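Review session, final week

We close the course with one last complete record, chosen because it touches almost every idea we covered. It is ASD2 domain-containing protein, a protein from Aquarana catesbeiana with 212 residues. Go through it on your own first, then we will talk.
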Amino acid sequence: MFSYLQVELIANRIRKLEILKGAKDSLIVDIKVNNSLGEQVEALIEQLCKPNEFDKYKMFIGDLDKVVNLLLSLSGRLAKVENVLSTFGEDTNAEERNTWNEKKKQLCGQHEDARELKENLDRREKLVTDILGNYLTRDQFQDYQHFVKMKSALLIEQREVDDKIKLGQEQLDCLLESLPRDFMDNRKVPLKEEGVSSSGNVKMLPPLTTSL
């Protein structure tokens, strides 16, 4: 048995997914614009700096992507493990609890290692910044700083949006599975709102005019 409220919840979830999809599309444009700025900055630095100084810049920018993504990945995995542990009660199997605690311990260690990598990266950024300060004009230097700042910020924002889309799609899938099969099979006209799956496919919903 299902209710109109369930259908409304599904429609609401679909609308939220569409908003998130729009945010992701806008974010992709921002990333492309910032990457374009980065290409201009890189070409300028290659032209002005010594080869070994340019190599330092290239390595720093390449590692910035890797370290930020590593921290985001470990933070997400650690949060999921902590969420599982928070659901355990006194009757939870001791072996299962120990397994998850061991996972948490391992991830905490990896996260601490990643933080040390980030601290080392911050020191390298200061070195690169000092080098570039000897070559770039004020406007050029501001472009460099903006590119680096936005590169990290956009990586973080992209991960947050992707996680929200994934969670929203999982919630939508659960709600759709709660509907009777004949309700889905007998509807020929799709609802105008569309949900977006993690694979990029569109998920359609039957109209809300059905008698419940």
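Two points worth writing down before the exam:
The two ends are 9 Å apart (CA to CA).
The CA atoms of residues 3 and 159 lie 35 Å apart.
Good luck, everyone.
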